[in-house]
Amino acid sequence: MKDLKRWHKWRIKLIGFGFILAFGLIGYRALSLQVLDHELFEKRAQRQYQRIIQLPRQRGTIYDRNGQVLALSTAVDSIYVEPHRIEDVPGTAKALAQVLTLSQRRLLVKLSKERRFLWVKRQVSPRESESLRALKLKGVGFIKEHRRFYPNSQLGAQVIGFTGLDPKGLEGLELQYDSQMLGERGFLVVEKDGKGKSLGFGDQDAPVKGGTPGHSLVLTLDKNLQYIAEKELAAGVRKARAKSGTVVVLDPETGKVLAMASYPDYNPNSYRSSRPSQWRNRAVCDSFEPGSTLKPFLVAAALNEGVVSPQQKVYCENGLYRVGGRKVRDTHRYGLLSVADIIKLSSNIGSAKIGKKLERDRYYRYLRDFGFGARSGIDFPGESKGLLRPPEKWFEADLANISFGQGIAVTALQLARATAVIANGGLLMEADLVEQIVDNDKAIVEKHKPRTVHRVLSEAVAHQVRDMMVSVVSEGGTGPLAQVPGFTVAGKTGTAQKVDPVTGGYSKDKRVSSFVGFLPAEAPRLVILVVVDEPEGQTYGGLVAAPVFSRIAEQSLRHLGVSPTESPRQMTLPKIVFDDPAPAALPLRVATRQDGTLPTMPDCVGMSGRQVLQTMERAGLNIKLKGSGRVVEQHPAAHRAIQYGSEVWVRLAPPA
Fold first, then answer.
1. Over pLDDT 70: what percentage of the chain?
2. In terms of domains, do 250 and 185 share one?
3. Which is the catalytic residue, given 78, 216, 292, 514?
4. What is the number of structural domains in the chain?
5. In this predicted model, what pLDDT tens digit does every residue of 474-487 receive, in sequence order?
6. In what order do the strands lie in the sheet with 182-191?
7. Is residue 147 a part of any domain in this protein?
């Protein structure tokens, strides 16, 4: 009996302990649900009655080197419908079709679906949004999204590129820096009913949650220099009735790209209305035979190796030279020419003989050192490396051809960088298009500093070749039309035959005309390359590309505030030596600068930046823009005479 009582006591204790344990577990579970794992189960519950709609990421902004906006993301409306709230489906479909320029039949099908949320049109224009809001259609709503906008239209389009609706970068720097520029996604939270159908937002605009913009780019491009390059290139291509054209402007000391223009261009705000060939950055992605513009690099290599001296005489065979079973011709019957005159008069025969002295292995090594035959590594997609065959595949005729720029293909960027080597005293610099990557607080995330690749030439040789290139632009040279009043210009013309894709040989009538140079020659600030593809009529680089160089250089130096190094004088061009075999009689019409009164400053106060540029273009003047908004101050004052070399500027400010 005693044992039985003891057993009852232990059983009661055991049952009590079981109750305590059960209540403890229940309490812990309640604590876990209500406190410890509250956020987890709240999210699970939200997923059951909420639907998340992901929105496109917001991209960072693109600025030029002076902080001017080249590309930005602006808030625009996207249109959606809630079919269950629409009372007049045919009427709503008709109204949407008229305002948004959509198919009424397709809209009618979409609005008839048993759905609670449907997109109608993403990222509409402000005019479309305003018109649709005025109609106050029941069941039609608006969501704020960010659309990529290029405020300068065509300016720098081939460099900047464009984005899709996503908005992923599709071309240019938008593609190259896509991952850095894309920010965090924004999203919509739509409540669902018990059957999983969206309840919508009623008559309120849909609230967007989250979303931050990505990093922004600060380019090396100067917006004003880019405008000058594009304007003058377009004028030059149209005047020559050419197929296309390219301009590259570099800072020779740093290698930074200050302007990079291609023509024909396009508007990235409506890129679908243009051809893909217009999207291509020809300066980086296209290659061409450089022709005589390659001769300074041949002579520089030969001087640096000590195989020739500037005044050494070379016999140029009176205009006809046979090498490797082929004929090499000059435009004139030259006898003995100095090495300096071979550059000035652009002798093919003299260049071929210098190439023979240098020999193929050394010449190839120098061409590679100048950056030819290899990608520069510029931060841009689709760069071409050009064409430079290894020296073991060169025959005797190949060495002669490459000596005067045939049988080799280069990009405009490669040719401009190589010229910068001569301009800066012998150093090959890295070329960049992006100077800085910054975050939303303008803090620098990444900075691209000027970088030297290697030394190509001694400083003394670079100065010797510079002086030879100065003679090219003087009277009796091939490029006097490249002269800029008040400045000494060093340069070289080029006129190369194009390869006929049908015959595989050189075309009889298709040429690439070019001019590359730098100025002021004694202390270079700019290297400028102009390439005009397939000009009609006059095809010589000295007639087609050199005048474009002159106009770009003059306006660019004025914008940069570079003072003339010599007194300006009237350009007199009694004779031009052609750098390619010419017809016996070629009519030469040279446009000289007009004499007369000084130009006067227009009244720009109150104008926008675009209106100022248009006014100055009509007046034939260049101007420096400071700030953004509307003009509040200008120099000189309105209707005052503009003295040569004086600074011309306007200051813009946003409205108060």
1. 84
2. no
3. 292
4. 3
5. 988 899 999 999 99
6. 50-59, 182-191, 209-212
7. yes
